[in-house]
Amino acid sequence: MEAAGYATLTRQTGLMREMQMIANNIANAATTGYRAEGMIFSEFVARADGAPSLSMARGNTPVTSQLQGALEATGGAFDFAIEGEGFFLIDTPEGERLTRSGVFALSGAGDLVTMDGFRVLDAGGAPVFIPPDAGRPGLAADGTLSADDRPLAQLGLFRPAEGAALSRVGGNLFQSRGEVEPVEEGRILQGFREGSNVEPLGEVARMIEVQRAYEMGQSFLEAEHERVRRALDTFTR
């Protein structure tokens, strides 16, 4: 296969991955706190001894959009939305994770948990505990939860430390490939939910573009295959 064929084949693989990402974005257009993903394509050029250079495309670097999602008022005592930068810190069986989804509830033990039952951690990294006899909690500007005129816990916002990569490990869960640090700029709103930042119409338009690009690549590969077949037929006669 010539260099053009290798370049097209590797590009097709990347386009297939991008199509899967777009489909996942559309499927999560209504998921609370979801962050849309995109794909970065790069080119790898190698020169072999005594042979022409070989160019291959790589589409395996996901990029997560950090645009703010729309805020929806719910009035729920344990619904929290982040305005600005930062993530909530969650304790999972696989380790600490970050999320923008602040739809929480109380467990039977009094811990503040996600809809999956994972404990929410406070500004100091400890589980947030709400006593069973506490009234409806209120949230102060600094993230302190209080009930019956007594402070209960302080919700914290975090982000990956400088140089630490952020990778998706679930629908709206992320993992920091390094330490996390507190965020001072973000603000937590009680009684709100942050919606997905996916733009469905834009994603559908992008899906059409990717599909057309994939079809063009497929047509090129089929034409190249036919050209090679005819050449072989000519030489073998």
Task: Extract low-pLDDT stretches.
Answer: none
- Terminal CA distance reads 22 Å
Tell me the helix content: 25-40%
Q: Beta-strand percentage?
A: 25-35%
Write a concise keyword list for the protein shown above.
237 residues; alpha+beta; 5-stranded antiparallel beta sheet
Report a brief summary of the structure.
The chain has 237 residues and is an alpha+beta fold. It has 2 domains: 3-66 and 198-236, no CATH class; 71-194, no CATH class.
Task: Please tell me about this protein's structure.
It is built from two helices and 18 strands. A hairpin with a 4-residue loop joins strand 14 and strand 15. The longest helix has 37 residues. The chain starts with a helix and ends with a helix. A five-stranded antiparallel sheet has the order 9-5-6-15-14, with no helix packed on it. It has a three-stranded antiparallel sheet with strand order 10-11-12, with no helix packed on it. A two-stranded antiparallel sheet has the order 1-2. The protein is an alpha+beta fold and 237 residues long. The chain has two domains: 103 residues, no CATH class; 124 residues, no CATH class.
Topology:
Blueprint lengths: L2 H25 L9 E11 L5 E12 L6 E3 L6 E4 L4 E5 L2 E5 L4 E3 L5 E3 L4 E2 L17 E2 L4 E4 L2 E5 L3 E3 L5 E3 L4 E4 L3 E3 L4 E4 L1 E3 L5 H37 L1
Antiparallel strand pairs: 1-2, 3-18, 4-17, 5-6, 5-9, 6-15, 7-8, 10-11, 11-12, 13-16, 14-15
